[in-house]
Amino acid sequence: MKFDDILSDVGDFGWYQKRNYILLLIGWILTAPFMVLSVFVLAMPDHRDLSANLIEYIQPTTFKNLTSLQVLHLYDNELSTIEPFTFINLPSLRDLHLTRNNIRHIREQAFGYLPSLSQLVLAGNPLNCDCSIFPLWSWLIERSSIATNAKCSNGTLITSLQSPALDICNPDNCHCFNGGKCVANGNELACDCIGQWTGEFCQESQCISHECGSGDCYIEPINGTAQCLCDDRYVNFCPEHIN
Ligand SMILES: *[C@@H]1O[C@H](CO)[C@@H](O)[C@H](O)[C@H]1NC(C)=O
Ligand SMILES: *[C@@H]1O[C@H](CO)[C@@H](O)[C@H](O)[C@H]1NC(C)=O
Ligand SMILES: *[C@@H]1O[C@H](CO)[C@@H](O)[C@H](O)[C@H]1NC(C)=O
């Protein structure tokens, strides 16, 4: 017997099936609003208002990659430093409001890939205009389409700072040897040396005059003296291996 033949016995899509079908639909209709709700609940808002929230610190990359964010309000908080990579890759961000925080330092690369940014509102922050301002200053000079009222703690507009005065803060004019990095140190740049290297340009090392034999010289981090490392032991001199 074929399956279709059963239908001729029991009757096809009749009143009984229609009633069951409609009862089933009532259940689906009730769930429909919940399906639609996710459209609104999971949507990315264009505006975020985090003003007057006593925020003291923003974790780097907190606002990374929010592609549809257009306006971000962070005024009247208690931020003191904007860390590197805080506001990056926000292609739609137009207005960033950071008014009346306590921002003194904006670190290098705090802002990156903000192609739509037209307003950076920073009034009411005592920005420190020593050499640490150089990255922000040069970024603002390059991106002259960004309107900003950022001021130094003495009231001078950041964008009116003069290039010759800041030359001394330009990392291109600072050279460190042996892997040292130029970092802002008050109104000048200084070399931040690594490993055994010291001196103004990281050109000096106690290891230069410290003979270690077959071992490697390193600088003891606590007392700063040259030591030798041989076979996991720290000594003053490593005798040649005797095979
Ligand atoms: C952010 O976007 C960049 C470039 O589109 C991508 O490489 C990165 O993985 C994204 N990061 C996150 C946390 O989504
Ligand atoms: C404020 O500080 C900047 C940077 O140190 C300096 O160039 C400027 O002349 C100062 N302005 C006043 C009014 O003191
Ligand atoms: C420095 O520290 C090392 C390792 O702790 C020790 O062996 C050495 O004697 C110290 N040098 C001085 C001058 O204190």
From TrEMBL:
Could you list this entry's UniProt keywords, alphabetically sorted.
Answer: Disulfide bond, EGF-like domain, Leucine-rich repeat, Membrane, Repeat, Signal, Transmembrane, Transmembrane helix
Q: Which domain of life is it from?
A: Eukaryota
Mind telling me which InterPro entries this protein's record contains? Answer: EGF (IPR000742), Leu-rich_rpt (IPR001611), Leu-rich_rpt_typical-subtyp (IPR003591), LRR_dom_sf (IPR032675), LRR_TM_domain-containing (IPR050541)
Pfam families named in the record: LRR_8
What GO cellular component term, any one, is given? plasma membrane
| Disulfide linkage | C193-C202
Gene3D superfamilies, alphabetized: Ribonuclease Inhibitor
Mind telling me which PROSITE patterns this protein's record contains?
EGF_1, EGF_3, LRR
Residue ranges of the TM segments: 21-44
Ranges for domain EGF-like come to: 170-203
Q: What PANTHER family does this protein's entry cite?
A: ANTIGEN BSP, PUTATIVE-RELATED (PTHR24369), CHAOPTIN-RELATED (PTHR24369:SF210)
Q: What is this protein called?
A: EGF-like domain-containing protein
The species this protein was found in = Mytilus edulis
